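Cross-check.
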Amino acid sequence: MIINLTPHAIRIRVSASIAAENDPADIVIESGGLARVGTRSTVCGYIDDVPILRTEYTGVTGLPDPVEGTTYVVSLLVLQALPDRKDLVGPATGPNDGVVRTADGRVYAVRAWQKW
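Predicted model, tokenized:
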């Protein structure tokens, strides 16, 4: 079972098609919740009276405990925060990952998952 914990549907392109329009073989995994990394910002300096903020991560919320046979799709930031969780993957959206993009450059579908 795969549960998507990002704020939007994830489209997986399993065919060789590079066209951004809907491919009947695409797999769409709707959002089933939201896992987030909490943050806290502190001022660590100034440039010309404009504050420089340092962001600290405060923990992950919205992520269930591991369940045998379940994989959770999360953001890269959640993956980075929890590198030891074997049940987490993220959409592979890097420049060499075969991402299918719309004419204006937005990610339309991914072809793979990533781990951190």
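The chain is about 5% helix and 40% strand. The chain has one domain: 2-114. Passed to J.P. for a second look.
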